[in-house]
Amino acid sequence: MKKIAVLLLILLLTGLTGGCWSRRELTEVAIVLGTGVDWMEDGRIRLTVQIARPGAFTAGSEAGARGREPASWVVSAEGRTIQEAERYLAMKVPREIYWGHCIILVLGEEMARKGTGMITNFFQRDRQPRENIWVMVTRGEAKDFLETYSSLEKTSAQAAGFLERMKTGYSVQLWKLAEMLASKGIQPAVTAVEVKEAGITPEPDREKKSPPQKQVGLAGVAVFKEDKLIGWLDPYETRGLLWLKGEAMKGVIIVPSPGEPDKAVSIRIRRGSTKILPEYDGEYLRFMVRIRVEGDMVEQQSREDLAKPEKIKTLESEMADELKKRATAALEKAQNEYGVDIFGFGDAFHRKYKKEWRDLKDRWDEEFSRAEVNIAVEAQIREIGLLTKRAGVPEE
Amino acid sequence: MLEQGKIDSRQAILLIISLVLPTAILTVPAITVKHAAQDAWISIIVATMAGLLIARLVTDLSLRFPGKTLFEYAEEILGRVPGKVVGFLYIWWFLHANALIMDEYASFLCSAHMPDTPVIVFFILGIAVAACAVRNGLEVLSRFNQLFLPLFLGLLLVVFILATKDMKVTRLLPVFDKGAIAILKGAATPASWLGEIVIFTMIIPFLNKPKEAYRVAALATLFTSFYLLVSILVAIMIFGPNVTGHWIFPTYNAVRVVSIANFLERMESIAVAVWMFGGFAKVGVFYYAAVLGSAQWLGLKDYRPLVAPVGVILVALAALCENIVELLDFLATAWPPYALSVFEVGMPLVLLIVALARGKGGEGT
To answer: Is B243 at the interface with chain A, CB within 8 A?
Structure first.
């Protein structure tokens, strides 16, 4: 009897006291949604965090009559390391800073030029931040980027995270960046972002029109040599980079209409694949890049009837040309202007020529800049939508 | 006979898997990948061969002395005093290995989950629970293991399958990049883990069908290797060889990366939960071997009085580890030669050769 009583008491105690050690209630933590790091003139770094205000995330306040409550709070502090800056932040943030839900890591332009490795280290080493944080480089300062507002999402960090997740542009998660930083056969390329003017929210009173809002947006790609930023690719070249890397086969290709070259036809890409085939004879380095792409015609400005096999053939070859042009634009910039292999040609070379790689790996970027790259594109158009030709055009 | 219980072949297989696997998938991948890069999977295959040979050696030895454990037949083979010395060394090794296992788990929990909890709490709690199981004997330990290990293995496999989305087979190329020596170096650590099957010598006497011992040992080794192989492949195919070698617990990071449709994510809690079960089972088996061995070495009639003192020694030994760097360095450099050459191959081989030379024991079945 006594034994049972003791057992019951222990059972009760485990139920009541379990998990109380270092517990954290939602109201005791400051959840970081976005982190920004800027390089300061005096050699210190400025850590900016966008912290969620959980009250604004409840369903009630969204529809409530009080209007939209700001969903985030942005604070900064400086320090020599991320941790030191975080401790200074803690002097202003009345809760425990929690990194587990951090969605984005934004590096200011100057910071990226000084080196990303010393920043990403903390985010890989600490147990709270996750490997799949989206990493990006902003033109200007990370602080300005995080201090923006989002009309559609709750906070700008989430907006930036969703932009990345949509894979509209080139996007990179921390663990992919770590792989690019660690490999000699590829140099890192990171999403470039900027603060853009993005639409307005109409008010009931049309006279009281709100000024255009500054919101986050994608701006191409930041090119790195080792862990230092050395340049940018614009959105057009970014598409080329994506094709050469064989990632995110999305987007639209605009080609001239075969019969009326001043009018355009849009082809939406459905899927594609890229193969990089290195060839090396000990001296001469050559790469064959084979891109396959499939798309649907979705828009036609011209009046001609494109629903004919031979017209589709012409469109396909124009599509291939256009794609090749994009890829070449990215390639030329990487080879001639920056002299870095951001496509992973080195990794492809390593896979095929492991012995030769040992000699070349330490001067790979020079070898890559000199290499000849042949891009061959095979394009196919599958569907043409629901129309055969432009509607509302009289038969000729 | 100190142990009254009997276990069947299936329980024995599961017990041996628990004996090796839980810490193997935690710390071995990073060490192996550091040596052999993307060829780590070949290292595992090499280690499996070695593991099978050790399993064969150990089973051969044990089956010559039916119903007897390592501690009993060591004396029979070598004579009383040398046998006692060998026995003492084995007791030491079981304790040392067990302390390292607890250090691995405590470090993992501390660095990845519960930084505020002092390591000693993990040691004491882990040992206290394991002590209960050990006190109740081999059968209880086996049944516990039989209950939870399939869960452990199943959930782990599910998580690995979910991770396939982020894997790229090309990360395994080129094959044989670093050469045969690197692959062999990479194989040493997993081989020393698979060699822990030496503890099977403490279990064989309690098999209800000792004739199946070979099959049990081989199946268990193959199964363990399979999981080890899969976890290494998963880590390499997700992170590539460079980053895999940078992480301390690459399999854990690989599980963290899994994100299906943005809602099926953060599955590391499942992985950690199953790892805890596994870790407890592993500690339990080593603990049991140490306690039973000590009792036989001292010639006691019952091993139960030894459970508590051995537990205290274990906690104290585990607490000797100063930091995780020391632990990882020991596991990567000192452990393979120390465990593999002395306790897993050296001594069993010497025992077998002497037994054959002196004609001790019956013919191996």
So the answer is: yes
Q: Is A132 on the interface with B (CB under 8 A)?
A: yes
Q: Are B62 and B200 in contact (CB under 8 A)?
A: yes
A46 vs chain B: nearest CA distance in angstroms?
26
Average pLDDT value for residue range A131-142: 92
- Say if A324 is an interface residue toward chain B (CB within 8 Å): no
For B178, the closest chain A residue by CA position comes to A354
Is A127 within 8 Å of B113 when comparing Cβ atoms?
yes
A289: domain CATH number? 3.30.300.210
How confident is residue A66, by pLDDT bands cut at 50, 70 and 90?
Answer: very low
Do A244 and A182 fall within a single domain?
no
How many A/B residue pairs have CB atoms within 8 Å? 45
Which domain covers residue A136, as residue numbers? 25-59+66-233
Work out the pLDDT band at A393, boundaries 50, 70, 90. low
Whether residues A354 and B174 touch (CB distance < 8 A) is answered with: yes
Is the CB of B238 less than 8 angstroms away from the CB of A175? yes
Per-residue pLDDT at B119: 87
Interchain pair B253, A21: CB under 8 A:
no
**Is B256 in contact with A130 (Cβ distance < 8 A)?**
yes
Is B32 in contact with B234 (CB distance < 8 Å)? no
Closest Cα in chain A, distance from residue B174 (Å): 4
Name every chain A residue with its beta carbon within 8 A of the beta carbon of B262. 165
Residue closest to B349 by CA, chosen among B202, B188, B220, B198 = B198
A187 to chain B nearest CA, in Å? 14
**3-state secondary structure at position A193:** strand
DSSP output for A41-69: TTS-EEEEEEEE-GGGGSHHHHHSTT-PP
Q: Is the dihedral of CA B1, B4, B8, B9 positive or negative?
A: negative
Instruction: Tell how strand A252-256 and strand A228-233 pair up.
Output: unpaired
Q: What percent of chain A has pLDDT over 70?
A: 92
Question: Do A128 and A207 sit in the same domain of this protein?
Answer: yes
**What tens-digit pLDDT sequence spans chain B (365 residues)?**
577 788 888 999 999 998 888 888 888 999 999 998 889 999 999 999 999 999 999 998 888 888 888 888 888 888 889 999 999 999 999 999 999 999 998 888 888 888 888 888 889 988 998 998 898 888 888 988 888 888 888 888 888 888 888 888 888 888 888 888 999 999 999 999 999 999 999 888 888 888 888 999 999 999 999 999 999 999 999 999 989 988 999 988 988 888 887 778 888 888 888 788 888 889 999 999 999 999 999 988 888 889 999 999 999 999 988 888 888 899 888 999 999 888 999 999 999 999 888 887 775 44
Q: Which residues on adjacent β-strands are paired with residue A78?
A: A46
Domain end (from A233, A262, A282)? A233
Write down all domains in chain B, each with its CATH number in brackets: 9-358 (1.20.1740.10)
The torsion angles phi and psi of A153, rounded to 5 degrees, stand at -95, 170
What is residue B365's predicted lDDT score, i.e. its pLDDT? 43
Residue A63: the pLDDT is 47
CA distance B191 to B336: 8
Note every long-range contact of A91-94, with CB atoms under 8 Å and residues 24 or more positions apart, other chains counting.
A93/A30, A93/A51, A94/A30
Question: What number is the ipTM of this complex?
Answer: 0.84
Measured between beta carbons, the chain B residues lying within 8 angstroms of A354 are 174, 176-177
| Test mutation, A131, A153, A166, A347, chain B, max B CBs within 10 A | A131
A131 → closest Cβ in B177, B253, B262: B253
CB-based contacts of B1: which residues, under 8 Å, 6+ apart? B67
| B11 to chain A, closest Cα gap in Å | 30
Residues of chain B neighbouring A247 (CB-CB closer than 8 A):
none
Q: Tell me whether B112 touches chain A (CB under 8 Å).
A: yes
Q: Is residue A337 domain-resident? A: yes
